[in-house]
Structure formats: C-alpha cells, structure tokens
Amino acid sequence: MRREAAVAAIVLGAVILAVAAFTTPWRVLAAGPPDPARDFTAAQIARAQAFDAVTTLPSYLSLGLTIIIIGVLVATPIGAKAVGRLRGPWWLRVILGVVVITAITELIRWPLAMWFETLLREFGLSTQDWGSWTVDQLKSTGVETVIACLMLLVLVALARKLRRWWIPAAVGAFALTVVASFLYPVVFEPLFNEFTPMQQGSLRQNLLAMAARDGVPVEDVLVADASRRTTALNAYVSGFGATRRIVVYDTLLKAPQPEVELVVAHELGHAKDNDVLSGTLLSGLNAALAAVLLFLVFDRLRRRVGVTSIADPRAVGAVMGLMSLGSLLIGPAENVVSRHVEARADVHALDLTRDPATFINMQKRLAVTNISDLSPDAVEYVLYASHPTSPQRIAMARAWAKLNGIPVP
User: Fold this and answer.
1) Sign of CA dihedral 202, 205, 208, 212
2) Would you tell me how many other CB atoms lie within 10 Å of the CB of residue 286?
C-alpha cells in the first residue's frame, strides 16, 4: 500500500507542477528596477519603514510560535494525551479534540494578535473596537474549527473502515476544496461583511460596461462595508460561475472614479483568465496530495505522538499539526504563483484602460493608504508577498507605456 501511495503522490506532484507551469504567466512584462524614491516622498517611505519595523517582531514571533505548536503536536504525545482525557464515542472525541486543540492554540496566540491589532490602530489602519475585533476573531476561528471537524471526522471514519483510506480521502479533499471555493462567497463572506449592490450611477454603469466590453460575465458588483474595521483600500473577485462577483471596499469609493475603475479592471483580469478556477484546481490538487502524504508520513510518527493509528481519535492533534506544517511549507510557492498572476491582472488592467498615469496614481494611493512595504527584505518577500510591491507594479506600468507608445508617466 505504501508503494501505491508513493506512486500516487509522485503522479499528483507531477500534475500539480504541470498545472502550475501551464496556468501561471511566468513572463508577463519585463520592467526596469523599482525605485520607491521616484514616486514616494521621504515621509511616505519613512512611514512605511516604521510600520514594517514595528510589525516585523510580532510577525516573526507568530511564525515562530506556529512552528513550536506544530513541533509539539507532531513530535510529542502532548496532543494525544490532551485528547485522551475526553470521553464519548469516537466521533464525539474527534470533534471535542479539534475544539480543544484549536482553543488552546488560539489562547496561546491571542496576545500576539492583540499586539498586532494595537499596532494597526496606532497607524490608523484599524477602525475596530475590541468588542468587534473579538467577534471577528471568534467567527474566523469558528469557521476554521467547523471545517477542521468535518475533515477530521471523514478522515478518521475512512481510516476505521478502509485500509487504503488515502484514496477516498484524496478524492474527498479535492471535492471539498472545490465546493468550498464555490460556496465561500455566498456562505462565509457574509459572516464578516455586509454586501450591497453598488448604487446606480456613472461608476456602476462604467464598471458594468467595462466588464461587457471585456467579455467577462459578472454576476454583480458589490460594495463591502470594510470601513467598519479598516481604512485600507481593496477590491477582489471571488467565486466562479453563478457566484462570481466583483467586490469593492467602501473605503475605495473615496478615491477618484478613474482609479476605482482601474482597480476593477485589474479584478476583471482575474475573472477573464479564470484565476479563481485555476487557483481552486491547484488548491484541490494540493489537498489531495496532502491526504496521500499524510498516509505515507503518519505511520512513522504514530509511536512518537503516542497513538496506535490515524483511526485513533487521539491522533487529531498530530493530523492538525501536519496540516499546519503543510500550509506553512506550501506558502512560499503559492506566493510565487500569486505574484505572477497579479502581475498579469495588472497588465490586463492597462490593456483595458490604456491609462498608465492613472494606474500609477492608483498604486501610489493604495501603497500610502495601506502602508505597504515598499522595499521588503528577501525573507519577508518570500514568506508574505502575494503581490508584487507597489514600486514593481509602477515600474511595470512605465514599461507597458513605453512598449505601447504612450508617454511614460
């Protein structure tokens, strides 16, 4: 069985690499070196550096704490002992085990989260009070806990019934990822924001006309009440098929209309190139591979963590630790793909609007308002950067203007 699983893992890994290779725009548009000093004042650069300086420590402490928690769960019997104190049928112990381990983990991480929220408030990025912030944290933890319970229940049930449980587990992991991507915009997003159709007017008309001109079917353009928790500017596309919609933060509506249209043009690029669908496919394949690797790895860990097999409800802690480890390891690779996809959406926005000057103004506004890191160090860029930096995006806009015979802003 291990040989079969190993072959399946190799095949899935090859498929993932092939899908990533063919769906990722590795060469978007060559641009000159980014130069923050050309577009940002000394005060703006200093503010971005100050924000990066004060948030670096809690960010790395959070990362270190995550690694320690993973180590405890996958290399010691502490998780199994904690779950072993629970009583009831196996399915109840799985649910309670996930809840208990999640609760302990969140309690340990809570002070760091409060510290980071305090820094956001000091720099004017957060508009929440502690009550609404706590509610948001609990909602997020609740959603993650429900999903983890569902996954672990199915996994343990399969392991109790089938020797080759990794086969249906891989199929189920892929299916769950696809279903969750389809349902997320209509089930989970409303838990955190209220969405209203953008009011009638020239902006809505222009956005819908731009989508029609671009040949992108869009269910709706919605406005999220983001201002109740942040001053940051953003927009995004979520869902696909019948649930695809473009969402604009209400904070973004304060920007000049041409800049809002450019942000939405960027999001139309994601829809045009089916980035959500491609991302869902890759995530589903990664989830399937994770199920197979779990089968291959867990047998070597079971004695260390103090359980007989993955069918033992006490194993939920080790499985949760391995899932967290997988997410941590895959993160940098996902960021590489994401940066190229975002660059392609930028080029799409420029092709659609043919307005590099407004594009640059929009990037400057986003960077200053969101206090973006204008020159991240290599480690932070690899670990956290899912988008090109603002100076990189501006440099690309100037390269696009030069290539298309438009005066360079």
Assistant:
1) negative
2) 21
